[in-house]
Write a structure and sequence with these properties.
With about 270 residues, the protein is of the alpha/beta class. Helix content is about 45%, strand content about 20%. Strands 3-2-1-4-5-7-6 form a seven-stranded mixed β-sheet, with helices on both faces.
Length: about 270
C-alpha cells in the first residue's frame, strides 16, 4: 500500500510529471472503419459473396458493397431490423447487390459452401455460439474466412457489473469469455489466424475526433443512478436497465472492463 506521505509528498507532488506528459500524447488510435480494411485484406472482390451475419439496418452491408462491389446477403432475426434494412438498401439503390433475409444465425437459409466471407460485428455475444459457428463452417467455401468483432468481459469487470451488463444487453454469459470463445472456435472446425485486441482504441479515436461525448454519458448515468427508483416506476425496470447498459458500454471499453477484439477465423484443413 502506498503511504500518504509518499502519495502527497512524492507521487502527486510534481504536477507536470513526465508520466502526465506521456498520458497526454495520442497513440494514433485506429478508427472503427479499419474493420472494412481488414475485410479487404482477406481478399474480398467484386465477385465475392459476403454474409453479413446479424445485419441490423444493413449499414455495414451497404458500405461493403460501396467499397468492394461485392454481393452481400444480409441476415437478421429481428423483424424491425429486416424492415429497416430493406428500406435502407432500397434508398441506396442496391437491391441488386444486397439480399436482406430474416433468419437466425444459428439456422442460415443458405446452401453449403456458398459464401466467400462472413462479416459478423457485435453479434456473437447474443447467440448460441457453437451452433452459429457450425453454420458459418457449413456455408463457407473451403478458402473462406470469418471476420468477427466481439466484446468480452475483462478481469476488471466485477461479477455484479458483468451480470447486470449481460442481462441488459441480451448477452449470453459464457460467450463473453475469450477462453470460451476460442475453445468453441476450435471445436467447430475453425482455427484462429488473426487476433487484434483493441482494448479502448476505438473509444480513444472517438474521443480524439469528437465523435463521442463521454461526459454526456457519465452525466446521464449519474442522473439515472440518483433517480433510479422513480425512473423504474415510470418506465419499467427493463427499459432503465437497457438505458444504463447502453451508457456503460463504451465507458467500460475505455476503462478496460470489457475487451473489444477482432478475430479472423479460417476452416481447418
Amino acid at each position: 500500500m502506498i503511504s500518504s506521505e509518499r502519495l502527497y509528498g512524492e507521487l502527486w507532488a510534481d504536477e507536470g510529471s513526465a508520466l502526465d506528459r506521456e498520458l497526454g500524447r495520442s497513440l494514433r488510435p485506429r478508427p472503427t472503419t479499419m474493420l472494412y480494411d481488414e475485410l479487404g485484406r482477406l481478399g474480398v472482390r467484386p465477385e465475392s459473396v459476403v454474409l453479413d451475419a446479424g445485419a441490423r439496418d444493413a449499414v455495414h452491408a451497404i458500405e461493403l458493397v460501396r467499397r468492394f462491389g461485392c454481393r452481400v446477403i444480409a441476415i437478421d432475426p429481428v423483424s424491425l431490423h429486416v424492415e429497416r434494412a430493406r428500406a435502407k438498401v432500397a434508398a441506396a439503390g442496391l437491391e441488386g447487390r444486397i439480399e436482406v433475409v430474416q433468419a437466425a444465425v444459428e439456422s442460415l437459409p443458405l446452401g453449403d459452401a456458398t459464401i466467400d466471407l462472413v462479416w459478423c460485428r457485435d453479434v456473437l455475444n447474443h447467440v448460441e455460439l457453437a451452433g452459429s459457428l457450425r453454420e458459418f463452417a457449413r456455408v463457407l467455401r473451403p478458402a473462406g474466412s470469418v471476420l468477427a468483432y466481439q466484446t468480452f468481459a475483462g478481469p476488471a469487470c466485477e461479477p455484479e457489473e458483468a451480470r447486470r451488463l449481460f442481462a441488459a444487453s441480451a448477452s449470453v454469459t459464457e460467450n463473453m469469455s475469450p477462453a470460451f470463445f476460442e475453445s468453441t472456435v476450435a471445436e467447430t472446425g475453425f482455427q484462429v489466424v488473426g487476433v487484434d485486441r483493441l482494448r479502448g482504441e476505438w473509444r480513444e479515436r472517438m474521443l480524439e475526433e469528437g465523435e463521442w461525448d463521454v461526459a454526456a454519458d457519465l452525466l446521464a448515468l449519474s442522473r439515472l443512478h440518483r433517480r433510479e427508483r422513480e425512473l423504474v416506476e415510470r418506465y419499467g425496470r427493463d427499459r432503465v436497465e437497457v438505458a444504463r447498459a447502453g451508457l456503460l458500454w463504451g465507458i467500460y471499453q475505455l476503462l478496460g472492463k470489457t475487451l473489444p477484439t477482432i478475430y479472423v477465423l479460417r476452416l481447418r484443413p
